[in-house]
Structures are given as C-alpha cells and as structure tokens.
Specification:
single chain; 776 residues; alpha/beta; TIM Barrel; 2 domains; eight-stranded parallel β-sheet; five-stranded parallel β-sheet; 26 helices; 21 strands; 11% strand; binds glutamine; binds zinc ion; methionine biosynthesis; zinc; Cbl-indep_Met_Synth_N
Length: 776
C-alpha cells in the first residue's frame, strides 16, 4: 500500500462563518456581554475551526492561529514585549489587550489598565501585513529591553484542542519576523539587536509545548520572502541554531509564504529545521532548487493551493505537476498545504445563495480549499482511479471557465490591443494645461476643497439598507439622496469652499459602488475577510473582462452641479485601487485586468467631461498598497499602475482639471511615479506627521499642484484655525504658494456633521488668512 500524503493547513479564518467574532467583540466593547461570554465565543470558534478541518480530513491541523484581534499583538504579549498583568482576571486582561489594540480614553485614578493615568492609552500603530489587506498592530519595543514568556497562548490552545481529541500543530510567529515587523520607540535602534534576548523566550515556549506532548510546531517567518540584508539573514542562522538543533524541543516546520525565497533561499535551506514550507502559488520558480537542496532529514511542505485568492484549483494539473516531486522526495517527506494561512479568503462558498452555479463552480473559499487539498493528496497517493470522477468534474468546470462568454469580451480586448503602445499622455504638458484651467476655473490662491465623501450618517445608512432590502422604492431612495446632496451643496457654498463635491451619499463603498455597475464583477453575501480586528471587508470578485454597460456617476454629478454655479468635482475610484481591493482573476495578469478597468474609468471620465464637469477626481487610495514585496518587482508594478491611471485621463481636454487622492504620504520611495501620474492636482495625507512628510519635496520638485491634508479626519478632534495656518506655513516652506490647495486628509464619511462643519469652516478661514498674508 502506498503511503497517504499528509495534508496540512497553516491557519484558518478566525472571524466565524457568520462573523460571530465581530458580533461578540462589539457586544463586549459596548458592555452588553461580560468577558466570559466573549471568551466563550472565541473558544467555540476555535473548536468549530478545528472540527471543520478534521471533518474535511486534513491531517495536520493548526492551533494558535486564532486571535481575538491580531496575532502580532498576541505574540508581543506572549513574549512580554508589552505587559498585561497576566495573573489578573479576564476583565482586566481584556481591558489592557483592547486598549493596546484600539486605544482608550484617559482614565481616572482607579484605572488599572496600565495606561499613564490621565493620558489614556494610545493604540498601537497599524500597518499592512506584507502585501495583504490584513493589518497588524506594530509592537513598540525599547532599545535594550528584555522579554519573558508572559503568556503561553500556544500551549493553552494546544491543550484546548487536545481535550477535544485533536492533536494540532501550533502556529507561532517566528522571532526574526516578529522583530522585523516591530519598531523601536526611539525610531533608530535596529530591533534585531534584541534577538539574543528574545530567542530564550521561544526556547522556553517550545520546551513547554514539548512537555505537554507537542511534537511539531509551525514557525512562520514570512520575512523570508522579502529582501533581507546579510545581517538579517545572519539573524536566522543565530535564532534557528538555538531553536532547531535542540532535540529536546518540538520539530520545527519553518513556513515562508507570499512569494519565493529569492536571495534568502540558501539561508533558509541551511537552517537546522526539520521542515520547510514554501509558497508554490507565487513562487513556483523555486521548486526545483529547493527540492534539490533539501537535506535528507527534512520534509517539504508544498504550498500548492492559493491561500490568497478565491479560484478553484486545477487539481488534475497539480497532480501532474507534483507527482514527480513526490517520486523524488518520497511521500513521507512531503506535505500538501495551502500557500499560506487561509486567513485571507472567505470561509465557505456554500453559504452563497445568490451567486449563480456556473460562477460558483469556478470558485473555492477556505472550506473548499481543504477539499481540494484532500482530493489532491488522494490522487497523489495512488487513489487516482477512485477520485477520477471528481477530477474530471473540476476539469470540466475549468474548461467552461476558460471559454465562457462571461469571461472573454472581444470588444474590450480589441480596444486595448489598439491602444497598446500608444501614448497615454495628456494633450499638453501641465504648464500649458494649468493656464487654461486657471482661465476657466478662476479659483483664488489656495483653493479649498474636500476629498469627496460627507458623513454617512445613520440616516443615510438606514435609507440605503431599506432600499437594498426592497423596503424603500428606488424613487423614494433617489429623492432622499438628492435631498442630502442638495443640503451638502448648500452648506459647502455657505461655508465658502471653492471646489465642491456631491458628497457620495449614494455610495456604499468606493470600490463596491463601481464594481456593482461594471460587468465582470461579482459580489458575495458572506465573503468576509478580516482587514483588522473587528473590521472585515467583502472584496468584489473580478471574474471576467471588465466593461461598463452605462455611465456610473454622471447623473449624480449633474444633480449636484444643478444646485450650484461653483465647480463640482466628478468623483471616481481609480483602476489600481479597484484592482487592489478586489479578488482578481488568476487567468490573466493583474496588469491586464487593471487596463480593462482603466478603460471603463476612462469612458466615465469622458462622459463626465461631456456632461460639463470641469474637474474630475480619480482616487488612487490603494496605489501604494499594491507594491510588490521585493525591490526588483517594484518598478514594473509602478510602470503599469501609473500607465493605467494615465489611460483614464488620456482623452480629456487641457482645460479639464484632473485630481487624484492618496490616503498616505509615504512617498519617498515612489515619488517619481506619483509625479509621473501627471494629475493636475493631488491631495495627500500629511496632517498627522505635521507636514514632516513633505520633506521629500525639498529634494524632489513636484511639478504640479498639491493639497497636503490639513485636517486629520481619522480623529474626532476639530483643528483650530491657527493650527491649520501653522501647518500650511510649514507646507509653504516646501511647496510653491500658487500650487497649494487646502483640503482634509481623506474623505469625511466616517465623521459626524458636528465635527465636519466647524473643521471645514476653520480650514476655509485659514485659507483666507493665508491668502491675505501672501498678497500683502
Ligand atoms: N473620494 C473618497 C472619499 O472621500 C476617497 C476615500 C479614500 O481615499 N479612502 O470617501
Ligand atoms: Zn483617502
């Protein structure tokens, strides 16, 4: 009998198929349920996840992949990087835990959460987990600090699963990745200098795991797929010599994912660990060299099922591809796994009752991916005949996908082929355009504007939800939105803004709104994916060629413009942002998909211009997010991303002013690309850094107009007039007065009118003051 190849999962979504975790967290935060109830829900979710995986037939099931909020925060607590008064009761622990995650108001003198009394606790900074849309909390370390095993969460969860009869493989964020993801409070010290103090904590943890009968752990070191310098590679040698060689500790499966090992391959292969996991969805190129270099005592975990996307795997093809690898290594030395944790995909396709059967036959969510793994393992373990029908089934569905008229739209392909190689430049350079725009627009110095959305008040959300449920007619809904738009225009005129917006009251989300109006996009009912903590998103699925059946925003723009003689900006989401916030088809390059979206947005730009819009904003909030992890891949991405943006604006008249907006200002590394986009005006986020982020503009001459955000919309605080004038005088040190716009950091949809109204009034007042000063 042939050995059955083992299947393994590296991590399962934590949120619950019905978002149970969110519900419990929010109930707990608002004081509706006690700590025990929250912890019970968490335990029930872990149990459910383990049992789901077991029922599917997965051989190696992970534990400690669960988190109440974030696994990096959990790791920081585990190693004592932040103190939590572990011995305290649940309620005090949770208070401190969520204070770190979400911040909290200043406390009175009875406070026990560990904050400095009277000053509150600031939430840890949040940033993207590699190139995913998951955000982790950045641990703040101190130079020279020590660590200790404060909370052995992996041990507790291992025991919890064992009590249910399931022996798991705990997942632990590795020490090198942990330190590289953290930051030092002084902003200078290299966090890796703390490694010698951190590794003993991992040794202690592994010892405790071994003592309770755990033989294998999965240690995640995703930084292995990023560019590492010699010192960082050396840190791996150091840490794993201490963790991997000690036979009294559990064996280590070292997991790399989100790309190939690249220049770190030799480092990874030389480590004394018992197994290695590689991502073969993103890094198929590394297969042969890794297989050849693997030591005879090591096993290889093949990450073959895409943990980052929702497409059904071509299992028959995987059988062919991996049979030789198994023949070479022997079935004992191989495990089959998803490319990474399944955290990044929705849980269960079976919950989707509104997606049609054909589309569903092309998709796989977490549960279906487990089925694929098991099927693949059986086919590769000599049971091919027994599973042939299932394999054929997949082949048929995928053949249909390849040839379906829903996927291939000759018209858009033809149009893009014709555009290939053609310039995407505006007709004239900025200097000429700007003269024509100034003539037409007649704006004052330091024009004031906002980024697009106004508060999505409870009232707006209530009406939208009633409309979506069919409880409110389209006519009534439209009347309601028209009223809100009219009010918003009236208020903007009154407060004295120069360039108005319609307010985006009709939009549920800046990507979803467009996705729902474009062909080639599908939306799920339950396809939630964790973005951070209790915030989940339901990314659209781009399955086919993208086309625009009809104008998407023109009517609302017209309505808004009809209420005022001041210019109202047309407001669009850019192609790169739509792409980066969606599940993207895997049967053509991201670049090609993006060009199709760009074509649709270009047509919308044309229609807005035709309808009379003088200013059109194309938001690229997520352009930076799409940057690849390795430096060598960045230039190519930026090239096509910029080209896609430019395609959108390529047909407009010189006199039409194109704006773009980006919700960040870490521009230093991509400033040349931002400039190459050649938008007439760009608005960016700068207020939180007190305009320090504008320092780049001392060295780099940004040729076009720019609006550095002066009002931090992430905070309920209303900036005072002199605060804004002060911020802008900093900006004036770096940018030319005649190129400067005044605007908030980002859209105002999450704020309340009571905050927005005075804040914008202050901004307008500040602009007036500075205008006077500058003229004098
Ligand atoms: N126009 C959008 C808004 O104001 C931009 C949002 C964003 O950049 N995230 O809401
Ligand atoms: Zn923004």
């Amino acid at each position: 009998m042939t050995t059955t190849i083992r299947t393994a999962a590296l991590g399962f979504p934590r949120i619950g198929a019905r978002r149970e975790l969110k519900t419990a967290l929010e109930a707990f935060w608002s004081g509706k349920i006690p700590p025990q109830d929250l912890l019970q829900t968490a335990a029930a979710l872990r149990k459910d996840n383990w049992q789901r995986q077991k029922a599917k037939g997965i051989a190696i099931i992970p534990s400690n992949d669960f988190s109440l909020y974030d696994h990096v925060l959990d790791t920081a607590i585990m190693v004592g990087a932040v103190q939590t008064d572990q011995g305290a009761d649940d309620s005090r622990f949770l208070e401190r835990y969520f204070a770190l995650a979400r911040g909290r108001e200043a406390h009175d003198s009875n406070c026990s959460c560990g904050c400095v009394r009277g000053s509150g606790t600031k939430a840890l900074e949040m940033t993207k987990w590699f190139d995913t849309n998951y955000h982790y909390l950045v641990p703040e370390l101190q130079a020279g600090q020590s660590f200790f095993l404060q909370a052995a969460k992996p041990v507790a969860e291992f025991l919890e699963a064992r009590a249910l009869g399931i022996i798991t493989r705990p997942v632990i964020l590795g020490p090198v990745s942990f330190l590289l993801l953290a930051k030092c409070r002084d902003g200078e010290t290299d966090t890796l200098t703390l490694l010698p103090k951190l590794v003993p904590v991992y040794q202690e943890l592994l010892k405790q795991l071994k003592n309770v009968g755990c033989d294998w752990v999965q240690i995640d070191e995703p930084v292995l797929v990023t560019d590492l310098n010699k010192n960082q590679q050396g840190a791996f040698d150091y840490a794993y010599r201490l963790l991997g060689k000690d036979t009294s500790l559990p064996k280590i499966l070292l997991a790399s994912y989100f790309g190939d090992l690249g220049d770190n391959q030799t480092t990874a292969l030389n480590l004394p660990v018992a197994g290695l996991h590689i991502d073969l969805v993103r890094g198929m190129n590394q297969l042969d060299s890794v297989v050849n270099a693997l030591r005879p005592d090591q096993l290889l975990s093949l990450g073959v099922i895409d943990g980052r996307n929702v497409w059904r795997a071509d299992v028959p093809k995987l059988v062919e591809t991996f049979a030789p690898v198994i023949a070479t290594l022997g079935a004992d030395r191989v495990q089959l796994a998803p490319s990474c944790s399944l955290l990044h995909v929705p849980i269960d396709l079976q919950q989707e009752s509104k997606l049609d059967d054909e589309l569903k036959s092309w998709l796989a969510f977490a549960m279906q991916k487990l089925d694929e793994l098991v099927l693949l393992a059986r086919a590769l373990s000599g049971e091919k005949a027994a599973v042939q029908t299932q394999l054929d089934h997949i082949s048929t569905a995928l053949a249909q996908r390849r040839s379906s008229p829903r996927i291939i739209k000759p018209q858009v392909r033809h149009e893009l082929a014709q555009l290939k190689g053609k310039p995407v430049e505006r007709r004239s350079p900025y200097a000429e355009r700007s003269k024509k725009q100034k003539d037409i627009l007649q704006l004052p110095l330091f024009p004031t504007t906002t980024i697009g959305s106004f508060p999505q008040s409870a009232d707006v959300r209530k009406h939208r939800s009633a409309f979506t449920k069919g409880e409110l007619s389209a006519a009534d809904y439209n009347t309601f939105i028209t009223e809100r738009t009219k009010e918003a225009i009236g208020w903007q005129e009154e407060v004295g803004l120069d360039v108005l917006v319609h307010g985006e009251f009709e939009r549920n989300d800046m990507v979803q709104y467009f996705g729902e109006k474009l062909d080639g996009f599908a939306f799920t009912q339950h396809g939630w994916v964790q973005s951070y903590g209790s915030r989940y998103v339901r990314p659209p699925i781009i399955y086919g060629d993208v086309t625009r059946p009809a104008p998407m925003t023109v009517a609302w723009w017209q309505t808004a413009q009809s209420f005022t003689s001041k210019p109202v900006k047309g407001m669009l989401t850019g192609p790169v942002t739509i792409l980066n916030w969606s599940f993207v088809r895997d049967d053509q390059s991201r670049e090609d998909t993006c060009r199709q979206i760009a074509l649709a947005i270009r047509d919308e730009v044309k229609d807005l211009e035709k309808a009379g819009a003088k200013i059109i904003q194309i938001d690229e909030a997520a352009l930076r997010e799409g940057l690849p992890l390795k430096a060598k891949d960045k230039a190519h991405y930026l090239d096509w991303a910029v080209a896609c943006f430019k395609l959108c604006q390529s047909t407009v008249e010189d006199s039409t002013q194109i704006h773009t907006h980006m919700c960040y200002s870490e521009f230093n590394d991509i400033i040349a690309s931002i400039a190459a986009m050649d938008a007439d005006v760009i608005s960016i986020e700068t207020s939180r850094s007190k305009m320090e982020l504008l320092d780049i503009f001392k060295q780099f001459h940004y040729p076009n107009e720019i609006g550095p955000g002066v009002y931090d919309i992430h905070s309920p605080r209303i900036p005072a007039v002199d605060e804004i004038t002060e911020l802008l005088s900093h900006a004036l040190n770096r940018l030319n007065a005649d190129k400067l716009w005044f605007n908030p950091d980002c859209g105002l949809k999450t704020r309340h009118w009571e905050e927005v109204k005075p804040a914008i009034a202050h901004m307008v007042a500040a602009a007036r003051i500075l205008r006077q000063k500058t003229v004098q």
